[in-house]
């Protein structure tokens, strides 16, 4: 064994142990570095230089130029596909309720879609980790297209392509399965196509697709979803190449299937179903204290506990790895995603009802009246993506955006029978300016604090909580809307059968009153609608404030730092070496384990 000066050896050891942990260095790299420090001669600069050169050469090669532009365009088309479908259904709900006389099913048109999306997103995270990212993404688009074919396009839907409200709900649930892997897949693909510092701008562009689809959806209809999906599939198939080995352990297909946490998947689906049914039926179809509702809540609780136990047992092999819940930033990001999804979906679904029911607008005109919210969402998403890319820090932008969302949603609760143009226009602008960052904020946190190998599962977790928030709070908003509507009619027009409006279309108020010979009660019934809708807007406001709290608890990290994973740039390595050399030279520096 070579002899060394004891003080130098101690200083080297302390300098090494005092180095701050970096997420950029994965477990294997950290272990190898630690082992090298114990080996004589491991501090040889020439040897270290060769080792670092090997690491640099092993870094992923990102696509660039025309190829990158084509891939980004295909991903934007895929997200546009999902957003178009969701915005079409939100503005079409009043017309659909007229067709099927199913105002009591409004919540299910959104919740059935989000139910399967939510339940399967964590599983898709595991699939993206274990199987080919490219092939999984293509499969997700294909399943979504099949779901759309099962109910037809929106324009044919209104012409009775779907024979009943139940058929529409089932078709939406099938499409939701594909969506479970589509949006998270687009985000995962971006992680392999762009370095971290460039992703915010791309996320802003993709987030802007939601707003563009929201503008185009009511005007174009769903007939365009199928060809858009086909184009995206062809481009991804021909152009995309992921620099990752899909099956490094050479496992059989069956063994890889068994790694998907099938137990967790089969537990979480009935958990969410029981919870949604309880929230959907409670207070309207059944009393809250009825055995049915109590049984559903108990069932959801028991199944939920079993799911949590399964995740603790499986550890990192679970769909929701427990270690994510020990990371402050991931906890805040998941909370942010949950409350943002809850507030966003609630306001999107019920704001269109205000314009069509209260102001008597058509579906197309209501879509135009939503443009202040939607266009501002597009602009803010793109602008905030560019700001985060330029400034590096996402936390202050997330905080400011949620302040705008909270204020805008709070002002929307003041909508009444005679709200003037200036108010409903301006309030939507405020809310939309805050909503724009919501689509990318939590995802950026995930990709900044997690190693690259954990990005697929982490992204799926974020998407899971965002969809879960939407699914649950659409159901909550539905219950509050129906309760407010029934109570308002019983209070303001007791001579009318309140349930008559509950089982009719949202735009048929005036027609029903003419049929029962009570047109003079129009203002009373409209006020009852406003009362019910106001309750849903308060839900959005509360959720926006909760998302604001979550964003305030985030650490201030920068996307300009090196991306998590196996990559470690020359600058960081050089700084670490220099710091170690300085401390060694000082001899007694770093004795307390701190620099």
UniProtKB/TrEMBL annotation:
Residues 44-57 have a biased composition (Basic and acidic residues). Keywords: Membrane, Transmembrane, Transmembrane helix. One of its GO terms (cellular component) is plasma membrane. Residues 1-57 are annotated as: Disordered. It is found in: Membrane. Its main location: membrane. The keyword Transmembrane applies. It holds the Pfam family MFS_1. The keyword Repeat does not apply. It is a multi-pass membrane protein. Residues 71-559 form the Major facilitator superfamily (MFS) profile domain. This is Major facilitator superfamily (MFS) profile domain-containing protein. GO terms for molecular function: transmembrane transporter activity. InterPro entries: MFS, MFS_dom, MFS_trans_sf. CDD domains: MFS_Azr1_MDR_like. The chain crosses the membrane at residues 65-84, 136-157, 169-194, 201-220, 226-242, 262-281, 293-314, 335-355, 367-390, 397-418, 424-445, 457-481.
